[in-house]
Amino acid sequence: MKKYILTVLALASAFVSAQETPFKFKELVNNSALPIISQGKTGTCWSFSTTSFLESEVLRLTGKNVDLSEMFNVRYTYPVKAYNYVYRQGKAQFSQGGLSHDVLNSVRLNGVVPNEVYTGITGIETKHDHELFVKDLKVGLDSIIKNPKQYLTKDWKTNFDQKLNKKLGTPSTKFKYEGKEYTPQEFAKALKINPEDYVTITSFKQAPYYSQFVLQVPDNFSNGNYYNLPLDEYMKVLDEALFKGFTAAFDTDVSEKTFSRKYGMAIWPAEGKESDYFVQILPEKWVSADERQAAFEDYSTEDDHLMHITGILKDQLGNQYYDVKNSWGTDNVGNNGHIFMSKPYFRMKSIAFTIHKDALSKEVKKQLGIN
């Protein structure tokens, strides 16, 4: 997303303690996910989170643990961004950022591959690092926009693809996995990944509730549609999905001082000094739809980062938190790389979440017109 962040361990027991805090957590829901990995020096959290989500979906649907390639989705999404940026004469977003539906769009067109088939790391590199690479790509695209007669007559798309292949590797059209040959599309089908089965839910007041609309956030370059629910129903849908064994990819703001990498927590205190955050259990503020909307409209809530929600915990006072699988690795990060996010923080700062439509109740499906 906008911030390049350097970079699932299972909880060892029913109770776990956040490092250097008084919090004691008990699991209420702990749905399966693969171990945490790092997105490195990239802004591709959208692919890491949503790919992790799809890995959990594969496990739920087939019982198989399959480590999918995050960079396969990224490789195929960069050209889509580039075409949009050039055709809109630079009046669009071209950055590393994206959203969950961009992964689903890539899967729809290109399928999926195991990480062992496509790592996105070439040459002597050992970690993901796209910062200078994407800046260079943008310089090239800006040159095309400034001199269209000179560049658009040439095969600039081929040149762009060649840069991607040099940096990330050329995507495989066929590969072997566990002794069987697949195309990426065949592999997605074998894993029961159907992009049409997934929906993205949000809760904002600029569009009618129970409708679809294109959410106005900078990284929505592909104009993805979101289903809009009232805030309490938005929260209820997520909780019910988690208790039924589903997980969710979600987009959120992580810029607040009450979001801590060090402690692996996110809270929304009603009061208290900054020095008290995470070292005391502070009362939290219950957020209204109007407060959530105001934070979105004054830009204090932004689409900073995407992660993967796998469960629910409660502390010793009964306050509930989402167990969030992050993609910043596990070194020098609290809670073994997870973020324990309080429900008030989620109500206030989350943007949207993506889930399998089977996680929705019949009533909600009917309200949203989902079959």
UniProtKB/TrEMBL annotation:
Gene Ontology cellular-component terms listed: cytoplasm
InterPro entries: Papain-like_cys_pep_sf (IPR038765), Pept_cys_AS (IPR000169), Peptidase_C1A_C (IPR000668), Peptidase_C1B (IPR004134)
GO biological process terms, semicolon-separated: homocysteine catabolic process; proteolysis; response to toxic substance
Domain of life, per lineage: Bacteria
Gene Ontology MF terms: cysteine-type aminopeptidase activity
Parts of the chain that traverse the membrane: none
Active-site residues, Swiss-Prot/TrEMBL: 45, 305, 326
Occurrences of domain Peptidase C1A papain C-terminal (ranges): 34-71
Keywords associated with the record: Aminopeptidase, Hydrolase, Protease, Signal, Thiol protease
PANTHER family, sorted: BLEOMYCIN HYDROLASE (PTHR10363:SF2)
Full protein name: Aminopeptidase
Organism the protein comes from: Chishuiella changwenlii
